[in-house]
């Protein structure tokens, strides 16, 4: 089983304990190629592409110019670097060494710039959302750029797993980069809903945090069989069997 998360816009590059392990990211040549394109973008380009302020455009232009494609042993491990709502639920900085090792084998983070990351892969600061319509030599968007590469890596990473299933805890924007035709394994997508006055609905902030919390639940409980995720009960959520299907699992509170 592999759990797939989205990255976060907010970053925390305060260095964690240097004794913690770190690994070298994959897709090195792809990211280096993408960096050539991003380095050419003006502040106006970045504002238009990502819908961000001038200050954020300036910051990210500086990040792209500072990116060193050959510095594979610098940066912060991905699970520690992201600091958005999902990662409040994951709380990666509180994992012990065995927990980090399990996460490394069972958790993946999609990225517009890096393709797909393991939790301990080192990254440098960036912002490049997967839905960005950035023209590259491979097409008109980052979906075109990554093509079937992410799906093929997921297939490879699941080789040898007792339960070769992808648990999709990513947003639609990011999971859209997973080529369904190239993926050789089943996909299960949990959904988190809030129930009030007899109705249930998705509230983005709570749903994002719940994705990270479910990932942490899987790590803490050393869950390898997706079926065991139905026991998820943190923060008041419960599996709703009646509302669920074989591929879409509903959790309500």
Layout of helices and strands:
Blueprint: E1 2-5, H1 28-39, H2 43-50, H3 54-66, E2 76-77, H4 78-81, H5 85-90, H6 97-106, E3 107-111, E4 115-117, E5 122-123, H7 142-146, H8 149-158, E6 166-169, H9 172-175, E7 187-196, E8 199-201, H10 204-220, E9 238-239, E10 248-252
Parallel strand pairs: 1-3, 1-6, 6-7, 7-10
Antiparallel strand pairs: 2-5, 3-4, 7-8, 9-10
Helix pairs in contact: 2-3
Please, could you describe this protein's structure?
This protein has 253 residues and is an alpha/beta fold. The chain has one domain. It has ten helices and ten strands. The protein has helices spanning 28-39, 43-50, 54-66, 78-81, 85-90, 97-106, 142-146, 149-158, 172-175, 204-220; strands at residues 2-5, 76-77, 107-111, 115-117, 122-123, 166-169, 187-196, 199-201, 238-239, 248-252. Strands 1, 3, 4, 6, 7, 8, 9 and 10 form an eight-stranded mixed beta sheet that branches. A two-stranded antiparallel ribbon has the order 2-5. β3 (107-111) and β4 form a beta hairpin. α2 crosses α3 (54-66). The protein is globular. The mean pLDDT is 96.
């Amino acid at each position: 089983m592999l759990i797939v998360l989205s990255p976060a816009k907010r970053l925390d590059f305060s260095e964690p304990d240097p004794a913690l392990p770190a690994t070298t990211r994959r897709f090195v040549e792809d990211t280096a190629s993408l960096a050539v394109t991003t380095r050419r973008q003006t502040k106006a380009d970045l504002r238009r592409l990502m819908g961000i302020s001038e200050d954020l455009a300036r910051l990210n232009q500086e990040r792209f110019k500072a990116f060193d494609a050959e510095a594979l042993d610098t940066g912060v491990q991905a699970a520690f670097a992201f600091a958005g709502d999902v990662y409040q639920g994951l709380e990666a900085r509180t994992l012990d060494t065995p927990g980090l090792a399990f996460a490394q084998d069972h958790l993946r983070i999609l990225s517009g710039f890096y393709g797909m990351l393991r939790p301990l892969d080192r990254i440098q600061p960036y912002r490049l959302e997967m839905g960005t319509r950035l023209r590259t030599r491979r097409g008109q968007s980052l979906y075109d750029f990554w093509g079937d590469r992410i799906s093929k890596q997921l297939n490879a990473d699941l080789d040898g797993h007792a339960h070769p299933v992808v648990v999709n805890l990513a947003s639609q924007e990011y999971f859209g980069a997973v080529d369904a035709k190239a993926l050789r394994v089943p996909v299960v997508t949990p959904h988190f809903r809030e129930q009030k006055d007899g109705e249930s609905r998705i509230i983005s902030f709570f749903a994002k945090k719940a994705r990270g919390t479910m990932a942490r639940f899987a790590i803490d409980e050393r869950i390898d069989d997706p079926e065991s995720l139905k026991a998820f009960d943190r923060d008041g959520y419960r599996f709703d069997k009646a509302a669920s299907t074989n591929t879409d699992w509903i959790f309500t509170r």
